[in-house]
Amino acid sequence: MKRQRWQWLKRSLLLLLTWLWVTACQSSTFDHSRFRSQSPAQSGECRLVAHEMGETEVCGQPQRVAALSPHILDSILALGVQPIAYAEVTALNLETFDNPKAQIPYLGDRVTTQPINVGDRKNPSLEKLALVNPDLILAEDWTTQAHYQLLNQIAPTLLFSDTKGNEQVWFHDIQAIAKALDREPEAEQLLAAHEQQLATVRSQLAPVVTAYPDVLILAVNTLMNDVAIAADSTAGRLLEEIGFHLVYPEPVPPGETRWLQTSLELLPSLQSDIILVIAWDSSDPYNPKEELKAKWNQNPVLQTMSASQANRIFFVDYQLWGSVTRGPITDELILNKLPEMLLPLL
Q1: Distances in whole angstroms, Cα of residue 261 to Cα of each of 160, 226, 229, 255
Q2: I need a surface site. Which of 140, 227, 268, 270 has the fewest CB within 10 A?
Q3: Over the stretch 42-88, which tens digit does the pLDDT of each residue have?
Q4: SS3 for 79?
Q5: Does the pLDDT of residue 37 top 60, yes or no?
Q6: Burial level of 248, CB count in 10 A (0-12/13-18/19+)?
Q7: Mean of the per-residue pLDDT values of the chain
Q8: Is residue 222 within 8 Å of 289, Cβ to Cβ?
């Protein structure tokens, strides 16, 4: 009991010291000119924006936006907003994203700024954020809720969730994010463009759906000791909306997730026409698919699967195809890629 109280006291003191430090940073005489824009953030009509922590008043169009996850970055870029600071999935050894095309997977070629690197999405650097002096901080509630009060001392902070029930998709928070950025018409345009692109790809892939309807989606790490059937992934949602049937070993009641841990030895018992393997590596999240593909092709058990024997197996990256980025740009990129991957099967 004493140990628990001591741990609670240490945590409380740490939070207090951090808050005092952030406050000091904001009021210090340190030269922030490197991080400040030449003109103040635009003022304008104020509005209350609902998010996971309540409601926050935001005025005008924020000009200096910190995006604290790939999902948030995807969303603001799609809405036409560039980040002043960014937090990736993992901590990177760089001060700024001075070459975002090479440093930020899938989204970097749309970043025209050189955002300050503020750490990883679960542990953003309060020091760097205070120095950047953002107008607005946007993050996901599941990664950043523990830091909310401290972040809110630096700038108005809004935490969003794109999950409703067991469905995780950008439709659920894009309009709230757009309202915070004063970009609501752009959100409506994104939703309409997505529906149009989905209809086009559905028509393109209709013959593939007819010939090879059953798709098994797996999430596998590069060590091949963590294997899951990942029907509820970004790729799974899009393939199902196109018309494919996702292979799952048992019926799932409404509202429950279709994500099931399994083993390599059991995979041959799952009959499928196409296999999509989503590769991941917790120590190196960037492009792990080539390493996994090489190991997969050396495994005799996996080579007995009919989809492997027929060359209907595809290796993709979890950062985009799994459940990391999850935004309008993510869906656009996957829908662009699927016809290129699957039409040659005919």
Answers
A1: 28, 8, 6, 18
A2: 268
A3: 457 899 999 999 999 999 999 999 999 999 999 999 999 999 999 99
A4: coil
A5: no
A6: middle
A7: 88
A8: no
- For 57, the 3-state DSSP assignment is strand
Burial of 29 (C-beta count, 10 Å sphere; 0-12/13-18/19+): exposed
Q: Of the ranges 14-23, 34-43, 214-223, 307-316, which one carries the lowest mean pLDDT score?
A: 34-43
Tens of pLDDT, residues 152-171? 999 999 999 999 887 899 99
> Are the C-beta atoms of 281 and 221 separated by less than 8 Å?
yes
Residue by residue, DSSP assigns 332-345 as HHHHHHHHHHHGGG
Q: How far is CA 10 from the centre of its chain?
A: 33
Burial class (CB in 10 A: 0-12, 13-18, 19+), 315: buried
Distance CA 6, CA 315 (A): 49
Beta carbons of 260 and 226 less than 8 angstroms apart:
no
pLDDT of residue 26: 43
Q: Distances in Å between the alpha carbon of 301 and those of 83, 217, 221, 305, 309? A: 46, 17, 17, 8, 11
As given in the structure block, the two tokens for residue 67 are 């995006």
How far is Cα 276 from Cα 312, in angstroms, rounded to an integer?
A: 9
As given in the structure block, the two tokens for residue 118 are 């503020």
Structure tokens of 183? Answer: 């970009």
